[in-house]
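Hi everyone, sorry if this is the wrong subforum. Our group has a chain we'd like a structural model of before ordering constructs, and none of us has done structure prediction before. Sequence below.
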Amino acid sequence: MGAGFIGRKHPLLLSLPATGITAGLSMFTKKMMTIAGNKFIANFGTAKAILHFENNSQLTFTITEKDAAPANITETVQATAKEIRPGLFLVYWQEKSGTRVTQVHDYEKGLLYSNWVTATGGFTHLQGTIAPYTPITVQTTIKDSPAACWKTWTDPVAILRFNNPFDDWHTARVNIDLREGGNFYYRMEARDGHTGFDFDGRYDKIIANQLIEYTGTDGRKTITQFIPAAGGTLVTETFEPDTITPLDLQKTFCQNILENFKNYMETAG
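Answer:
Right subforum, don't worry. Here is the predicted structure as tokens:
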């Protein structure tokens, strides 16, 4: 529910430096020798993209930052990925604009080399980093039943009261059509009214009292689960992070919402 707010709450924060990438990717290359079915973050400094290898011949790329400004540009292309050696791939495709892209992905070292030629002959070369695109999970345990937690979590009146990640922000308005294919809309604002933003998307899967899956308009997915646990309910939220805001801040943001939800359920819910 709160996963999409964080990038707009702190829009000027820079993304985290690419520390620890080499170790993480080295483990990845040892476990599997294919990139099909996986997502990666390509980071060129002032430009970032999420690369989703849907299968062995189809790639969906989403540009999330361009010229150091947030972006949301998505295209699915027919791509070829050839393994040169374990952990090293040559990847190339042509976009609908006519631009031809050729990249070298060194997953062991976490390096990315990209070259593209536009339809008019312009040539660009960039070097950056590449890392697995890993979802973030936050959770809390609430002393109440999954059904009770579900009822409150999906109640627009209750949402206005608990869905506040920081003391100086609040959810001003909310509309939800809680069904598969239904839309949701949240209006988040600073309490002093000096700024605000909209967060919206569509529900992908609903299992009453158990699970909510949705996709935001920026393409990032979130899964919320209500799991029976000793003494109550374990509520978990797993979301795909944005590529601009530091990961620890995104995790704190969503964890704070869960803790506010827990407090609301156990004291006023």
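For your construct planning: Residues 6-11+134-267 form a domain with the Alpha-D-Glucose-1,6-Bisphosphate; Chain A, domain 4 fold (CATH 3.30.530.20). Residues 174 and 186 are 4 Å apart (CA to CA).
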